[in-house]
Design goal:
This protein has 2 helices and no strands. The relative contact order is 0.20. InterPro entries: eIF2G, P-loop_NTPase.
Protein backbone atom coordinates (compact mmCIF):
# COMPACT_ATOMS: atom_id res chain seq x y z
CA UNK A 1 0.00 0.00 0.00
CA UNK A 2 1.28 3.44 -0.94
CA UNK A 3 0.51 6.71 0.81
CA UNK A 4 0.90 9.77 -1.39
CA UNK A 5 0.10 13.02 0.43
CA UNK A 6 -0.88 16.05 -1.63
CA UNK A 7 -0.91 19.74 -0.77
CA UNK A 8 -1.53 22.90 -2.72
CA UNK A 9 -3.90 25.73 -3.47
CA UNK A 10 -7.26 25.64 -5.24
CA UNK A 11 -7.08 24.56 -8.89
CA UNK A 12 -3.59 23.11 -8.69
CA UNK A 13 -4.67 19.64 -9.89
CA UNK A 14 -4.56 17.49 -6.75
CA UNK A 15 -7.85 15.72 -7.53
CA UNK A 16 -6.77 15.21 -11.14
CA UNK A 17 -3.49 13.69 -9.95
CA UNK A 18 -5.26 11.31 -7.54
CA UNK A 19 -7.76 10.36 -10.27
CA UNK A 20 -4.87 9.58 -12.66
CA UNK A 21 -3.00 7.46 -10.09
CA UNK A 22 -5.95 5.51 -8.67
CA UNK A 23 -8.73 5.66 -11.25
CA UNK A 24 -11.05 6.66 -8.40
CA UNK A 25 -13.13 9.84 -8.23
CA UNK A 26 -11.97 11.80 -5.15
CA UNK A 27 -14.84 14.33 -5.36
CA UNK A 28 -17.72 12.55 -3.70
CA UNK A 29 -20.40 15.23 -3.42
CA UNK A 30 -22.51 16.40 -6.36
CA UNK A 31 -21.71 19.99 -5.35
CA UNK A 32 -17.98 19.27 -5.71
CA UNK A 33 -18.45 17.89 -9.20
CA UNK A 34 -20.77 20.76 -10.18
CA UNK A 35 -18.33 23.44 -8.97
CA UNK A 36 -15.24 21.57 -10.15
CA UNK A 37 -13.49 21.85 -6.79
CA UNK A 38 -13.06 19.61 -3.77
CA UNK A 39 -14.92 20.81 -0.68
CA UNK A 40 -14.48 17.88 1.71
CA UNK A 41 -11.11 16.18 2.18
CA UNK A 42 -11.20 12.48 1.46
CA UNK A 43 -9.16 9.40 0.70
CA UNK A 44 -8.85 7.40 -2.50
Amino acid sequence: MWVIPTAGHVDHGRSTLIRAFTGMEPDRWAEERRRGMTIDLGFA
